Amino acid sequence: MLYLFLVPLAKDYILFNVFRYLTFRSFMALISALVISLILGPWLIGRLKRMQSGAETIREDTPERHRAKKGTPTMGGVVILAAILGSTILWANLTNRYVWVVMLAISGFGLIGMWDDWMKIKKRRGLRARVKFGLQGLLTLGLLQIVYWQPEANWQPVLAIPFFKGWLLNLGWWWFPFAALVVVGASNAVNLTDGLDGLAIGPIVMAGGAFAVIAYLTGNFRAADYLKILNVRGAGELTVFCAALIGAAVGFLWFNCHPAEVFMGDAGSLALGGAIGMLAVLTKAELLLPLIGGLYVVEAVSVILQVASFKLTGRRIFRMAPLHHHYELTGWPEPKIVVRFWIVSFALALLALTTLKLR
């Protein structure tokens, strides 16, 4: 919004020329999102406590010691959504198609998550898996149409292969189900990881930083040409969204660190996962997402392996899935699990960024 109003004034007033710079607007977006989170957080937590008084917000399939968290309100992801959207609208170039796609993605997944949280609070049962996945799939396919139907010079349904210069796999119409799988899969992977105080939101900071770098380089023709990565015109503006994502996540972590004052709920986890999945698609980094969001992938795979093993052999691989609950039951304190998982996530995000040069 400020970009559209203030940049034209740069012709007459050199002071406003700073709003042309993507780096300046990105840093301001980060700070704005952080401030919005810290200001809005206490008010919303109070509202959620009154609204959810007496409701059960602890999942049944968790270790017994989680019962001590009873009374902690959920749906705190609303704070994250407000901070990200407010900051992005304030600092991004709103004529950019990709900015709107990722904002619609995080909003849509957030609304699905809010509905699911509300059903759990009022009826003690969330949305049926078929309904939830169906809504996520329809939303994603609708947004991918916006991405695909634009001038061919701006977008092509190709898959960039890491470590190889200019090696692009043209998916054709198969790009739609593949991209939808990436977005929906990322959304639900983050949702599965959201089981300990601060566990899911910490790696979002790392993922936001990694995608900010990728978006900036991918959208810059000279940088993309130097690194031999695919140049996506207009993708650089997503750096502002990524910065807002980092600021909102850090702000929410202030309230979500152990012992948590509020849980993000599906309103936050589904939205954040959908956002990083869409960022991967828009920046042509789909094959880097398993590294950038490596922790989420491991958590999701642990659930898949647990279910498959039990159905096929009647035995469990882990004491409890997702993986963080397994470590809880082996005696690890919750803060130790969270911090160590953050370290792994940080290392994987750095590893993903090194692939930009190793080609």
Spatial strand arrangement across the major sheet? 1-2
The number of distinct β-strands equals 2
Number of domains: 1
- Structural class by sheet pairing and helices: mainly alpha
Task: Classify the oligomer.
Answer: single chain
Largest sheet: 2 strands, antiparallel
Write down the secondary-structure element order.
Answer: HHHHHEEHHHHHHHHH
The parts where pLDDT drops under 50 for at least 5 residues are none
What is the terminal separation in angstroms?
38 Å
Helix content: 55-70%
Radius of gyration: 20 Å
Number of helices, counting only DSSP H or I runs of 4 residues or more: 14
Percentage of residues in strands: under 5%
Mean pLDDT metric: 91
Give a topology summary.
Elements: H1 2-6, H2 22-51, H3 77-91, H4 97-123, H5 129-148, E1 158-160, E2 168-170, H6 175-193, H7 201-219, H8 221-227, H9 238-256, H10 265-282, H11 289-292, H12 294-313, H13 323-329, H14 334-354
Antiparallel strand pairs: 1-2
Helix pairs in contact: 2-3, 2-9, 3-4, 3-9, 3-10, 4-5, 4-10, 5-6, 6-10, 6-12, 7-9, 7-10, 7-14
